[in-house]
Amino acid sequence: MENDESVETLGIDHIGLTVKYLSESAAFFTEQLGWKVVGEMPSYPAIFVSNGHMKLTLWQAENSGSSVPFDRKANIGLHHLAIAVPSFDALERLYEKLKFVPNIEIEFSPELSGKGPHKHMMIREPSGIRIEFVHRPKM
What we know:
The chain is an alpha/beta fold.
């Protein structure tokens, strides 16, 4: 294989996230978003969740008491996880549901992203990971 040949990739297989509160973070995905637990590794410990389109590996931080919250302007790493929703209505319904859930911080409610036409909202799940929910209408 020559250096200028590209290698085909198919997309993201899964995303691994280290979380401060494993059971609370897993419950966010299963109870609030309707995802399923598709595996567990108690010895690590880790819980694997999926919505049928994407899979997340949630890893328990070893010493969550000394963990430092992510600062998007200072740390290297995942800035946020963006999850697509099927419609503007679904985005609004999700916001209305999540704004009453304890341990969920709404960073901003649904709004246009830039000049649009897509809308998004940003939250922090129980372990503090930033999650963007976005709908991009087909043009």
